[in-house]
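Problem: given the chain below (340 residues), write out its structure.
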Amino acid sequence: MKAIGLKIARPVTDENLFEQTDIETPTATGHDILVRVKGVAVNPVDFKVRRGKADDGAFKVLGWDAAGVVEAVGDKVTLFNKGDEVWYAGDVTRPGSNSELQLVDERIVALKPKKLDFATAAALPLTTITAWEAMFDRMKIDRTAVSANQGKSILIINGAGGVGSIAIQLAKMAGLTVIATASRPETISWVTKMGADHVINHHQPLKEQVEGAGFAAVEYVLCTSETDEYWDVMCDLVAPQGHVVTITEAKNNHNVDLLKAKSASFSYEFMFTRSMFQTGDMVEQHKLLSEVAALVDGDALQVTTGENFGALTPESLRKAHALLESGKAIGKIIFDGLGA
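Solution.
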């Protein structure tokens, strides 16, 4: 089968960053399903893994957002049949979706929304799982208690990114007041479209802007940008018994005691945890994506596609990585599947 990947970590400016080649077609066994990939999307995890690629000459296939058609199923598979149209974010420890076919565990896969084409569907799994787990698993927000949540607020740092775009919508569905950060006219327009109640500029002091919007503190803070840059102000802004969640690793050590007097809590969110450690609740991602598919088909959630780069080729993938690394991407970058 054809796949796009790399053998050596190179800068995104290198025109030979990615190559397309033929690799062995995998066989579905156990809980694995073999999916013919019809649409893919890119995320920051793609360029982070690319940058950390070992210089061992091994061919690495990236890509952790996909939609496609089930080609074959393993002997323990119970959730899917050949021909099913599915979506998923995959497993960062396994070969990615930038290929014609991909093996993925059925427990982190669901039937895709019926109303979406494959490329558009591929924009949602990774960011939706991340936002959903951050708010409903880590922060313990009861998404069904809309009335009880009204009057509570969440600050979403970098609201125009992939995770921020879906987090705004999920928070609004749960009844929260959303304060999202954005700095450019186009990103301000985007987060407003996603449903943010207040928009503030993350290039300016956040505390003064949050207070200026009428909030002495916020019950929840979700950071989808640089943890190091915002740690102190997040601890300052979070309300007593509130919760801070970040999805980005910290390069520096930070003072967790800033949260002590408030009895506030802090969590990381990493959506690959369940698949990476084969946790006993892996199937929760199947359930989550199934529920999200129903929300999309019921017009309760907007798609978060920013740009469609067309067919997936080494050059179009390199350009997508460059845009992501620039920090100027709005929403998600998607592809229609592997080019000829």
